[in-house]
Amino acid sequence: MISCAVIPNAQPLQEQTELTRFTLVEYHMGIDARLVVYATNKQVVDKACEAAFKRIAQLDDIMSDYRPKSELMRFCAQPKGTAVKISDDLFRVFERSQTISRRSGGAFDITVGPVVQLWRRARKEGKLPDPALIVAARKLVGDQKLTLDAKTHTAMLAMDGMKLDLGGIAKGYASDEALKVLRKNGIKIALIEMGGDLVLGDSPPNSKGWTVRVPNDKSKELTLHNCAISSSGDTEQFVVIDGKRYSHVVDPKTGQGLTKRVQASIIARDGFTTDPISTALTLLDKRGRARLMRWYPSSKTFIKIASEDGPH
Question: 194 in a domain, yes or no?
Fold first, then answer.
């Protein structure tokens, strides 16, 4: 993921309004989670942000694929064909993931975990994954191999060895949930940043919105509020092996790390939408992107591809 730049209001806010700007950062989900809020006093901020960070940490405990005891990993460890009752949060994320997988033609697929693990090792070792291992891992990939039952609130994996990777959706969902917690605690003017995902509340004082700079077009500044913007690409996470650059984004269909140097940003109503779709956009061709975005007509995208067909 790549980060959007948030440009702070340079005006002396204390002289204009009783609200003061506060920024708090904690480490969650493998990154610095940043909350920028406006409130009347620090006591309000401390209480609200503590609750928001606690909610993010709770979701990390549920959805992490690094923690062996997370709910996600315990679910993946169950034998094939075992229907497991799962939490509301995990079921909601599984359900949304399958929807986007089908709408994107499989470009976004949380069952890609076995392949992602091979590429994580490749980035550490600086060596391409064994092609035979890629072939074996791809046999475990496919959203149809994850069965959900809304009536019993259960999920089931079709094959032993399957691993689910929520890295392309969990942060967006967590950011939305953090904003909900802040609002419940009286803070409506807020920004949550988690890697390449920004979720925005009401506009800061004396402004029409938060000023955000799109990472794949640094000349473009947007004024946004009550929405989300996510960006994906290989600007920060990639590996160069034998002179070729491979992104951390893995194509579920080929099992290969992305090599076409694409960056995608999308603005939509929430991070639960923008986070996974920004990932899918990096993997689709021009026609595929257009087909996916027909499901989200009110959204806006910014695509830049360095080695394919340029920005459009």
Answer: yes
Element (H, E) at 7: strand 5-7
CATH code of the domain in which 11 resides? 3.10.520.10
Interatomic CA distance for residues 293 and 264, integer angstroms: 13
DSSP β-bridge partners for residue 192: 35, 199
Cα-trace Rg, the chain? 20
Q: Phi, psi (5° rounding) for residue 225?
A: -155, 155
pLDDT digits (tens, 9 = 90+) for 182-204: 999 999 999 999 988 999 999 99
What pTM was computed for the model? Answer: 0.89
Domains identified in the chain, total number: 1
Residue 13 domain-assigned?
A: yes
Q: Quote the pLDDT of residue 165.
A: 96
Could you tell me which of 195, 163, 206 has the C-alpha nearest to residue 278? Answer: 195
**118 occurs within a structural domain:** no
* pLDDT (mean) for 49-54: 98
Domain span including residue 197:
5-64+171-224
| Amino acid at the residue 98 | Q
CB 138 within 8 A of CB 159: no
